[in-house]
Design brief:
By secondary structure, the chain is of the alpha+beta class. It is built from two helices and five strands, in the order H-E-E-H-E-E-E. The protein has a three-stranded antiparallel β-sheet with strand order 2-1-5, covered by helices on one side. It has a two-stranded antiparallel sheet with strand order 3-4. Strand 3 and strand 4 form a beta hairpin.
């Protein structure tokens, strides 16, 4: 009979314990005019949504946010199409499928 390596057993146990106690972290995606951005985990989503709304109302201004460790600025205007999606990390890792959402024209 073959004996199992005790170090491997400990590693397997640690992995299984981690997987059973790991909590999924929601990921927030913002699609601007069809381009998807994964936001930084510490991004204040309510603040970002408010700044996007303010930019659209003003006729157009740049709105800054962080995606992939890069600080970005997007020009948001009345004609910009923006979708915010919060996705559970345990879902598929390819990002949200936003193709089924109808784009609504906003009037200000």
């Amino acid at each position: 009979m073959l004996e199992r390596n005790p170090l491997r057993n400990r590693a397997e146990f640690a992995y299984l314990r981690h997987m059973s106690t790991a909590r999924s972290t929601p990921q927030t995606h913002v699609a601007i005019d069809g381009r998807d951005f994964l936001l930084a985990p510490d991004q204040d989503i309510d603040d970002l949504k408010q700044r996007i709304e303010d930019a659209a109302r003003s006729g157009g201004t740049f709105v800054g946010f962080e995606s992939g460790g890069v600080l970005l600025s997007a020009l948001i205007s009345r004609t910009s199409q923006v979708i915010v999606a919060v996705v559970d990390e345990s879902s598929s890792g390819s990002g949200p499928d936003m193709s089924g959402y109808e784009i609504v024209e906003w009037e200000y």
